[in-house]
Write a structure and sequence with these properties.
The complex is a heterodimer of chains A (589) and B (609). Chain A is α/β, with parallel strands linked by helices. Chain A contains 19 helices and twelve strands. In chain A, the strands form three sheets. A six-stranded mixed beta sheet of chain A has the order 6-9-10-3-11-12, sandwiched between helices. In chain A, a hairpin with a 2-residue loop joins strand 4 and strand 5. In chain A, helix 6 packs antiparallel against helix 8. The two termini of chain A are 59 Å apart. Chain B is 66% helix and 9% strand. Chain B has 22 helices and ten strands. The longest helix of chain B is centred in the middle third of the chain and has 53 residues. The chains are: A alpha/beta (589), B alpha/beta (609). Chains A and B meet through helix 2, helix 3, helix 4, helix 5 and helix 6 of A and helix 4, helix 5, helix 6, helix 7 and helix 9 of B.
Chain lengths: 589, 609
């Protein structure tokens, strides 16, 4: 756990509460009013006991009306007023609290989405989901049922103790002892409960990660017949979580038993001292009843203070996990202060001394220098794992280089507004992604121009019209993984998405790797028209695809080892020529 | 009549009662909970006894005050001592009850989760397309937690309320009958009020859970595809989608809070009304000397000890609708038949040669297979037939959308083929136990899925092979050198879905997994699509060696990949347009010949000096 203090964590929460503080202010006022009403109740009882009831016991007549009068006040103010105030309070906190939670949830997701992709590589998506759901819910608990109540409970403790002091000074000592004992128990309990809860959260997140992973990879799991292996792994995680729960249960059981017993023993002490005082005639019966009732109201807050510790502890553990997200290194963000603009039209690309690694000890790119003139095509070839995909990822700033700089249109990418950059530099990735929504949503995801003529033309060029019709048209739904399409079909759809977006820089990362050569050659014309007038960077394993590029660079071990046009490189007898030979050997088969 | 005979009758009688019937969905959590008989029995007894001990407090308090009024200091001390003793006994009992009951509930939760996880993993693949990981996680955590609450915690609070409240009323009815009657009426009214709110509570909490599930699903999809989300500048769009999901969740939660506030209103108003009744009726009784001031204090003290259990009871009742909503969703999962449920019983009893067969390469036959994907209007496969002899390698080729992967899914039973279409060793695949089939089948899918674990663990995954087999498999898949270069070598851990490896590297790790098991039947769905041609050649040579003496099916979008096959099946629009060797197809199948020409031209270009 990092060194963030509880205060820092609560301050983080306050940042989200601030915009809705009016609601919480109203709630606070309502709570204060209901506190006043709560004080009134026992006072009415005492007045009755020492007044009309004592009179009646002493044989004086004519007091039932006074008794009923006091009862009337009780009915109107305490029963009706108190209930109405409680209801209003619950509604107000819910309104304000849930709005805060909505804001936090949205901002947390937004933040997670802008975190460096490497962070997501380390964290399973199950753990991230846990942060957005369970952890935020814990803060929700704190806001709507915990925080205000807890603060007010503390105020009530002081209030009732003073009230007891005023009405029955002899008994105030016991109220104070009770408070002190309860506070001590809470404090002792506090740190162990926090650790126990954090362990539960961590085990639970790990378990959820396992389940989410198994669900995401179900095809592989099934095909390998590995259901029972995974079930056993999940069961182990399950047992760990259960054991973590057991540790918290023992602690809480001890806590509740001790705090209840100590409060009730204080009550016993008060009864003893008070009873002896009544026997001596120092304190009236009514005063003892009133003190008893106040103390009874005090038991609730002190007891709840423990219950609220449940909420507070888990909320703090969750706040820590949320704070981690906000403290984590974000993916490249928008430049500050003012962004430079990109010139219109095709854009030149340049990599200058670029070094990058996913982990510090494992460089993927080491010192790449590359210039791609506006409107030309540059092909990047090389063995798998050479760093090709990583190089392309720097263009749209999925990552920023550790050293060196990347320029688009003559501007350092770090100075260009991200939205503009990513609208003008469009990547067709190795793993085509479809998301939940309609086919139309998917195809127009990156487009400014949403005209249907254009969409129809692109689909026609890419030979996708029949596929779209077979699925039931553009308004047909796509599920979360796009599983109704084959990989090749998904690649075609991703290409169509890029074509519809009509960017100035097109980045094709193995964008046709899953297409058979018949389909690919059918696409040649479409691809040529897609690339015309644009700056294109293309990664391809098949050398035929890159043959006509204006520039070919061979990347190996994170460095450019050769560059030039096809004919030059083929004649040079280096790495490229060797790759050609290998391909030719292939061809003979 | 024996117990065995009466139990069903009693159960039927109980289930006649509508409220009980509504509780049936909770059985999956209650069964493992009730199975811990000793813990639950002792815990429940302790909870009841704690309730009884709690009742001593108001009585002792009242007697102490009466002793005080009677100027009897010794009496005061005596009753205070009784009070203190009851406090200690109650604390010990409640510690025991909480420890045992809540502990048992966590055990039951773990048991239910085990069962759910094991069942989930057996559900049909298409089910997972409809239920994203985020939704599954939220069901497994929130829904199971809501159900757990109805066991230990509900019992702990409920049992206490059930002793303290009725017994307390009895005490009051004895000393001040009018007050007792009024209190009884008020509490009865409260019960009716709470029961009437229950449907609304249930409705709203179901809506909240659904909205929360949507939030989880949205988040899960976006996080899993984070690179695309960022590169395609969809962060804002995804954030907006989450904002609307979060707003829906807020609106539903506020609605739920409104209903809950009405519940609390009822509880608060009733409690205060009882105090009011105590003031008026109790005061009058004291004034008329039918009750003592001590009785009045006792009454108030009784309400004091009753209030917490009563509120807890409200808490339990409030949690019940939520739990029932959750239980229905959990039941949905548990009642979804697993993928392997269909017709595994009609398989003839295995003969003694079964053991040998598991190690021998199978024959495969596909007969007139027509298959329509649920999301498609036209069939993905039409009338496909072929026979594959043991030890033979069949290549499957065809343009995008020709049905290659669908065929693989059906052969692996990731999708259920229609009856009488796919045969393994002459048995309909639907009648073969999936476990037996998978034990002899090695698979590499087009989209390799690697776990967040070490490379060694990924290669060994699903294989009964020794550690010694791992490195040779990596070597055969042409990835050994790259793996050895990683810090930690085979022990290096892969990020989620292997994202720190390139696509081609992941495919080769997955291929190594296929090779490590040395299984007699090998199914490879375009296993090298992201691997460059030079590397592919190297890997194919090793693969050819491996497939010798094994039955194998290999699909590819590149014709060059299937050159290692004995025969090639060429598909177009889900139909077989040619089967044969490369030479036969070139001569007899114009579509294949055209595809080959395309590729040949492409490669001839590469071959030019």
């Amino acid at each position: 756990m990092t060194g963030r203090t509880d205060r820092a964590r609560l301050a983080l929460l306050w940042g989200w509460v601030r915009p809705h503080r009016q609601g919480f202010l109203v709630a606070t006022l309502l709570l204060a009013l209901s506190f006043a009403v709560e004080l009134l109740g026992p006072w009415l009882v005492r007045t009755a006991v020492d007044g009309p009831i004592a009179d009646a016991l002493a044989g004086n007549e004519g007091s039932p009306t006074t008794l009923l009068g006091l009862g009337g006040i009780y009915l109107v103010v305490v029963v009706s007023g108190g209930s109405a105030l409680g209801y209003a309070f619950a509604r107000t906190t819910a309104q304000a609290g849930k709005a805060v939670i909505r804001d936090l949830r949205t901002a947390l997701t937004a933040r997670l989405l802008t975190l460096d992709a490497r962070w997501h590589d380390r964290e399973s998506s199950g753990r991230s989901i846990t942060r957005v759901t369970a952890d935020v819910d814990n803060l929700d608990q704190l806001l709507t049922t915990g925080a205000l109540h807890a603060a007010f409970d503390l105020a009530k403790l002081a209030g009732f103790a003073i009230a007891i002091g005023v009405f029955a000074p002899a008994l105030v000592g016991f109220a104070l002892v009770a408070c002190a004992v309860a506070a001590t128990i809470s404090l002792l309990f506090r740190s162990t409960a926090r650790t126990a809860y954090a362990a539960v959260r961590q085990d639970l997140a790990q378990q959820n990660g396992l389940v989410a992973e198994a669900a995401a990879g179900i095809r592989t799991v099934r095909a390998l017949g590995a259901e029972s292996t995974l079930a056993a792994r999940c069961a182990t995680a399950n047992r760990r979580t259960r054991d973590a729960w057991h540790r918290t249960i023992r602690r809480y059981a001890t806590f509740f038993a001790t705090i209840d017993a100590s409060l009730r023993l204080s009550q016993a002490g008060m009864l003893w001292i008070g009873g002896l005082a009544v026997a001596r005639g120092d304190v009236t019966t009514g005063a003892l009843v009133q003190a008893w009732l106040y103390f009874q109201k005090l038991v609730g807050p002190i007891r709840d203070l423990g219950e609220r510790y449940n909420v507070l502890q888990s909320a703090l553990a969750s706040a820590e996990r949320i704070a981690e997200v906000f403290a984590a290194q974000p993916a490249p963000t928008n430049p500050v202060p003012a962004a430079t603009t990109l010139p219109p039209g095709p854009l030149a690309l340049e990599f200058r001394g670029v070094c990058f690694g996913y982990t510090p000890d494992q460089p993927v790119l080491s010192g790449v220098d590359l210039m791609v003139e506006a409107g030309t095509t540059c092909a990047v070839v090389g063995p798998t794992g050479a760093g090709k995909t990583t190089l392309l990822a720097l263009l749209s700033r999925i990552h920023d280089p550790d050293r060196g700089e990347v320029f688009v249109g003559g501007r350092a990418v770090t100075t260009v507004e991200l939205g503009t950059l990513r609208r003008r530099v469009v990547v067709v990735p190795q793993e085509p992604v479809l998301f939940r929504g309609t086919l139309r949503d998917n195809l127009l995801a990156q487009a400014d121009d949403r005209s249907s003529d254009r969409v129809a033309r692109v689909l026609d060029e890419l030979g996708l019209t029949a596929l779209i019709d077979a699925c039931g048209g553009l308004d047909a739904g796509v599920d979360g993984t796009g599983s109704q399409f084959s990989r090749g079909e998904r690649q075609l759809l991703a290409l169509a998405r890029a074509a519809i977006a009509a960017p100035d820089v097109l980045v094709l990362d193995e964008a046709t790797a899953s297409l058979d050569s018949a389909t690919e050659s059918r696409l040649d014309r479409a691809l040529a028209s897609l690339c015309a007038g644009r700056t294109v960077m293309v990664v391809a394993h098949r050398l035929a695809t890159v043959r006509h590029a204006d520039q070919i660079v061979v990347l190996d071990g994170g460095e450019i080892v050769e560059r030039g046009r096809h004919a030059e490189l083929a004649a040079r007898g280096g790495r490229y020529a060797a790759m050609l030979r290998a391909a030719r050997g292939e061809n003979r088969a | 009549m024996s117990c065995r005979a009466t139990a069903p009758i009693i159960r039927r009688l109980l289930f006649r009662l509508a409220p009980f019937r509504a509780l049936i969905p909770l059985a999956p959590i209650w069964r493992p909970f009730a199975a811990r008989r000793r813990a639950v029995g002792c815990g429940a007894t302790a909870a009841l006894a704690a309730g009884a001990a709690l009742l001593v407090l108001p009585i002792a308090a009242g007697r102490a005050l009466d002793a005080a009024k009677a100027r009897d200091p010794d009496g005061v001390t005596r009753w205070v001592a009784v009070f203190a003793a009851a406090v200690l006994v109650e604390a010990a009992l409640r510690f025991t009850a909480r420890w045992l009951l809540v502990g048992a509930s966590r055990n039951a939760e773990a048991a239910l989760k085990d069962r759910l996880q094991a069942h989930l993993l057996r559900l049909p693949v298409p089910w997972f397309d409809r239920h994203p990981p985020g939704e599954i996680v939220s069901r497994l955590t929130q829904d199971v937690e809501a159900m757990r609450f109805t066991t230990g915690p509900a019992l702990l609070y409920g049992l206490q309320a059930l002793t303290v409240v009725p017994l307390g009323l009895l005490v009051v009815l004895q000393t001040a009958p009018a007050l007792g009657a009024v209190a009884l009426l008020l509490f009865a009214g409260l019960s009716v009020y709470l029961l009437r709110l229950a449907p609304a509570l249930r409705r709203e909490s179901t809506a909240v859970q659904a909205a929360l599930g949507e939030v989880g699903a949205r988040a899960g999809e976006a996080f899993a595809a984070i690179r695309f989300v960022q590169a395609a500048h969809r962060v804002d769009a995804e954030t907006r989608a989450m904002a609307s999901a979060a707003e829906e969740l807020r609106a539903r939660s506020v609605e739920l809070a409104r209903v809950q506030a009405r519940t609390d209103l009822g509880i608060h108003a009733t409690t205060e009304a009882v105090l009011f009744a105590g003031l008026c009726l109790g005061g009058l009784a004291v004034a008329e000397r039918t009750a003592s001031p001590g009785d009045l204090l006792g009454f108030y003290a009784l309400l004091g000890v009753q209030l917490a259990p009563l509120l807890a009871l409200g808490f339990v009742l409030g949690g019940l609708p939520r739990a029932l909503g959750a239980a229905v969703r959990i039941e949905e999962i548990l009642t979804t038949p697993p993928a392997d449920a269909a017709g595994n019983g009609d398989r003839p009893t295995p003969d003694p040669s079964e053991q040998d067969r598991a190690l021998s390469p199978p024959s495969v036959e596909v007969r007139n297979l027509t298959f329509r994907h649920p999301g498609r209007e036209t069939p993905t496969l039409r009338n496909v037939s072929f026979v594959l002899a043991p030890g033979e390698t069949l290549g499957i080729c065809g343009p995008v959308g020709s049905g290659k992967s669908a065929l693989i899914d059906l052969l692996l039973r990731l999708e259920e083929p229609p009856p009488g279409t796919v045969y393994i060793d002459g048995f309909d695949i639907r009648s073969v136990a999936p476990a037996a089939l998978r034990a002899r089948t090695a698979v590499a899918l087009q989209e390799p899925f690697l776990f967040r674990d070490s490379i060694a663990a990924n290669v060994a995954f699903g294989n009964a092979c020794g550690d010694g087999a791992l490195h040779p498999a990596l070597r055969a898949a042409g990835i050994a050198r790259e793996v050895d270069a990683l810090p930690g070598g085979m022990g290096a851990r892969i990020g989620e879905r292997g994202l720190t490896l390139s696509g081609g590297q992941r495919q080769r790790v997955a291929l190594a997994r296929t090779l490590a098991g040395a299984k007699p039947f090998v199914v490879l769905d375009d296993p090298l699509s992201a691997v460059d041609v030079a590397k592919e050649g190297e890997v194919l040579d090793a693969l050819r060696q491996h497939l010798r003496g094994r039955t194998a099916i290999l699909t590819a979008h590149r014709l060059s990949t299937v050159r290692i096959a004995d025969r090639i099946l060429y598909l177009e629009h889900g139909e077989v347009v040619g089967v044969g060797t490369h030479a036969q197809l070139l001569a007899d199948c114009p579509a294949y010949a055209a595809a080959y020409r395309h590729q040949h031209e492409a490669q001839a270009l590469e071959g030019e000096p």
